[in-house]
């Protein structure tokens, strides 16, 4: 059980909740802050004090005063009008992450919601009731308004949810589970949808998958290194300590450990003086991608524990400030950076694939074919990798450099962070498939060299791969092999 308090949630805990189904609960001390904050909202309403989003309309309607008796209707109307997302739904895991992050932000006690709102969000997490949330329609400021509105609908007994793997009408699921819909009170609708939880949820899942892929890429690159009889001197610790990037040093260290005991690696001058960059610069390139991952992790863990709605309540109600923490620019930049860092892992992997299959660049059978000419072997797998890499270059265009004004120019600069996060996730899926292709080719090269000559770590990695994909003894439908390996890589946590 993970206890959430609004300030200490981390990516390791998110991994346990999302990938392993660990249950969650709110911290009792945090709920006390929530109650105190709620009392402030009720005082504002009862005294008819003019405060944005509580006794006024929203966006350009912020100068329209709302009578006390209509403050609840204001919140309900907000959710209905803003639930205009389109396209395919986010995955159940993404919706689950959104529920967690929204609850955690409200637990900080700056938002003025009742405890039941947070408790219901976490109940949905524990019960596996995941709102159907369309992927498209967010500008990333004032937060993820459209996606989060769809997240809120099931709290009201409306919209659709995924439950036990089936997409269903919310009302029927709540009736089955004996859960009563919630009626939103003053400020609660605004507090629930004014935030960055859609882009951050996608970013969290993208990061967790990217981190796993980055480690896997090193094992795959090490097998290619053996298949091409790479020059081990380039991985010498002194080379990397001389540059002092810790991530580069760490990659080189892990590569040396993976290749320890190999009889296939060579020394300078033994077969050639230098390797191509795609082998020689693995620590430099992969290490730089690890630097990106470090930056993204830092920003995500800050945002996961941030109050991002508006207005925020401070000093027991003495200060109620309308600010802009809902603006997704920090996450937009992080996601665009993640796109670039991960795309490069695929770029260099595809170049290693080319060196494995091109007979002009190695002494292996052309295209690793068992019968060159009669059988094409891995020829078109390289085409596929090249296509995925090219697609990534398009997706890697930064979303954060774009902005379109909204709400009659009141909201005149937006982040497009959710688009950036979605594209980052797409890139990561492509990267995994490119690496799966490299793994298939590297295993085949290792067979030609002699698996028994490989390092113990690579012999184990080879066997892991061969448990999923058999050796290429004749041409077959390689699409199945690529997807099987990619699926295995995604499911290993």
UniProtKB/TrEMBL annotation:
Modification after translation, per record: Contains an active site 4-methylidene-imidazol-5-one (MIO), which is formed autocatalytically by cyclization and dehydration of residues Ala-Ser-Gly.
Reaction catalysis annotation: L-histidine = trans-urocanate + NH4(+)
Modified residues (2,3-didehydroalanine (Ser)): 142
Crosslink feature (5-imidazolinone (Ala-Gly)) location: 141-143
Gene3D superfamilies in the cross-refs: Fumarase/aspartase (Central domain) (1.20.200.10), Fumarase/aspartase (N-terminal domain) (1.10.275.10)
Span of the signal peptide: none
Domain of life per record: Bacteria
Family the UniProt entry places it in: Belongs to the PAL/histidase family.
Name of the molecule in the record: Histidine ammonia-lyase
Lineage: Bacteria, Bacillati, Bacillota, Bacilli, Bacillales
